[in-house]
Amino acid sequence: MSNNDIIFKHENHVLTEIQNFSSDQSLASMRAGYKNIISEYERLLKTTKHLVKLNDRSADRLSELATETQEKNNQLERLSKQLSKYLSPQVYDSIFRGHQKSGIASARKKLTVFFSDIVGFTSITESLEPEDLTAALNYYLTEMSAIALQYGATIDKYIGDAIMIFFGDPTSDGAKEDATRCVSMAIAMQERLQELSGEWATFGLHEPLRMRIGISTGFCTVGNFGSENRLDYTAVGACVNIASRLESKADSGKILLSQNTYNLVKDDVPCAEAGKLTLKGVGSRVRAFKVLDRGDVGPVISIRADQSYLRARLSALSKGELDQFKRSLKEALADIEGHIERL
User: Fold this and answer.
1) Quick check: 8 pLDDT over 70?
2) Confidence check: pLDDT of 340 > 80
3) Which pairs count as long-range contacts for 188-193, CB under 8 Å and 24+ apart, including other chains?
4) Are 219 and 108 in contact (CB under 8 A)?
5) pTM for this prediction
6) Cβ atoms of residues 33 and 24 within 8 Å
7) C-alpha pair distances (Å), 206 with each of 78, 120, 192, 199
8) 313, 294 in Cβ contact below 8 A?
9) CA 26, CA 137: separation in Å to the nearest integer?
10) What is the rounded CA–CA span in Å between residue 254 and residue 195?
């Protein structure tokens, strides 16, 4: 017997009775049969109505569950978006993809660390109403953060007007590329701040904002620090301290680099020696370099040929190096002219 026959066993029995009754011509049998069929039909109808009612309830409940599930998903999505504003995008993605655990843990990595703050911010806070100060600070942090994210930085934290950023975790393109992107980001921030010079008067500021920046490269301990109830994803170590102290030593609108950072970017970023600096909390004097503004760089010669590229910043060359460079260019020019004549 099939499953359907088992399920509808009673219905099949009623059908058989009807078929037998239709061949029976006895009046008494007809009356009794009618009564039996009507009784069975009423029972079947009652059972069917009950099943339909149960089915409707199930459908309504399923619809309610689907609505509740969608609302929970929407709520989780809203909470997720809110949470993302408290974390750097890289850290947020790492956590939600399961690559980063939420417990207390850290690792030793080579980072390039960035610190910046607004010059004279204390006096600015005294001269502005709290609402204007908040609006100006949020506008400044929004502009700088947009540049940081454009360069793939990990924004560690905001400390009032100060910003701490690092490159090299949770992802890294190598120490040289991390350092180059960090310094390039710092230059872009300074240039953007100059572009915004005319904006600050709308917040009640009498002078445009200026910032100073310190950058250092070295091994740090990076990861989750804090307690089981409250964690902060950050980096600690001598490199972090040096970057912070270099920032405090930088002149208004300038960028100071540690020697480790300079060694990684010197072929791509024009810099000048800033001397050995005594930094608070750092045992020995630190050799520092300042990133040159475009106006400080002086004339630059660039030569491109096929896949070769030569770039020389004349202000960085000594008198003897300039003479040698001049002779080399003359010899190269003579070789080129001779080659052209032979064509």
Assistant:
1) no
2) yes
3) 188/147, 188/150, 188/151, 189/116, 189/144, 189/147, 189/148, 189/213, 190/253, 190/255, 192/143, 192/144, 192/147, 193/143, 193/253
4) yes
5) 0.64
6) yes
7) 40, 12, 19, 11
8) no
9) 102
10) 16
